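tool=predict chain=A
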Amino acid sequence: MSVFEVPQGRLTTPFYDRMKAVDTLNTWHEWKGYTTPDELYCGETEYFALRNTTGVFDITPMTKYRITGPDSLAYIDRLVTRDMSKIKPGRVAYAVWCDDRGQVIDDGTIFHLREGEYRLCSQERHMAWLTAAAIGFDVSIVDETADVAALAVQGPTTWSILNNMGLEGLEELKPFGLTHFDFEGTELMVSRTGFTGDLGYELWMAPEKAEALWDALFDAGKDYAMRAIGVHALELARVEAGYLAAYVDFLPANATVRTGRTRSPLELGLGWLVDFKKPNFNGRRALAEEKRKGSTWRLVKLDIEGNKVADSSYIFSDAKAAKKSIGFVTSAAWSPVCKQNVAIGTVRTPHGEVGSNVWVEVYYQREMHWNREMAKATVVDKPFWFPPRRGATPPEPF
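tool=predict ok
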């Protein structure tokens, strides 16, 4: 087995040495300048650990901005489409922010850490946009990505493992809540958040205590067959949960050149995040006009017949209308736990009503030969994976 060497100029997270110690595949890639594993043992093994016990994913490279100051709430409320005044200290909000045309720049989570103190987390870097949007507001915006080590701890046994670790009282934490603990003299923040659609938590800690946190976590879970996981397992779980990913299911509005390539929150099925009762927010006028006239595109979740994964497939209104597509698949997977062939896609309105049927053009290869198949698909309105334990408070012990 070759020894993996980090390319010159690439960063490593505080958990890198612990992940490298258990790595057997040597498959890594770059995530916002950091070295991140695709798989560590086997993508399928890691996925089943995630769904049956606990998977641990290093989310340190995720962009993190600390927003503070007298106008912090007013600024954030102006920035995003939802009403942030409803998000009290100790709570987390999923949110999207748009340009003036009402097109999504990115989505992410906003942590109301303490009164007047927020952390915005996203996949992409946004300091230029956040700074420009802050003109006229008395706020401070600090990129703290490298200052906070973070782990996503996801799966049905997560509460039991964290309880074994000594985090007492965590059973009372509701979804999208956060709380703080002392860990070896340093503040450990735990939020009941994640990207898997399952019971799970995210741990946030100063980098100097990262390895100690990793060791304590895996010691507490030594009897649960928990595993560190890579991006491949997390991506499959993400699709099952129906979550969207930037540059996969939508393109950031400030990163495109061609018109018609971006999407609004209404076109991404995120209309519930747009609060027109707010007096003003970025893109409000354009979104109000879109709501009045109707959207061009509609996000769809598809339950597809058969087991051939519909990667990058075109969507048609019927099996015989193969000359003109109505949309395309953006994310697709065969779901082992749901036993379904699932996909997320985008279609032109008025197509894509919940309960309607469409057809997906699937290409797959067997022994060098490509095959084409038209598969029937049903538009559904729920995530493919949504277990009751996801919202159970307290969680069921294991």
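The chain has a mean pLDDT of 95. Residues 75 and 137 are 6 Å apart (CA to CA).
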